[in-house]
Amino acid sequence: MQRGANVELTREIPSLAHVVLGIDWNSGGETIIDQNLVFAAILCDDTGRARSGDDFVFFNQLADPNLSVHQLESVMGPDREQIDVDLHAVPDSVSRIVTVLYLNEGTARRRSLGQLRRCVLRVVNGADNVELVRSEDLAGTFNAETAATLGEVYRYRGGWKFKVIGQGHTTGIRGVAAEYGIPL
Question: In 139-157, which positions are buried (b, 16+ CB within 10 angstroms) versus exposed (e)?
Fold first, then answer.
């Protein structure tokens, strides 16, 4: 799917109960990038902002308080990292779950997502591991960005849709946190 495209997940599969959001990337020989890339999810309310810092799911907070969104310790398939979303357990006050990829600060300074050779986001049916959606390769859209909003799963007419976003941010995780109201 290209950036900006969306699909009605639960219209296509009415019994869909949970999805796995997976990211795969290729950084070439840049091991510092590999070691410092972080795949995360932000649970947002209907204003597009996190309700609190608990709505940021990443390596230091592996799940939201309701356990509806959590990082998987063991990935399935070709992904580097995966986030599991239990669609039925997502609180009613959450209208979208945004996925982001960012370079952790520190040793990754002077690196950017523009150095990636491949960056693909997938949506997999959590019940049978069948791939439902695959984004276009987003790596070519990045330049000096150190963070990117990759895609989102969001409520739509009583069901769930997925949209590929692929929007880079040159201000890193701090800029993403400010945009979504996450205290760091």
Answer: bebbeebbbbbbbbbbbbe
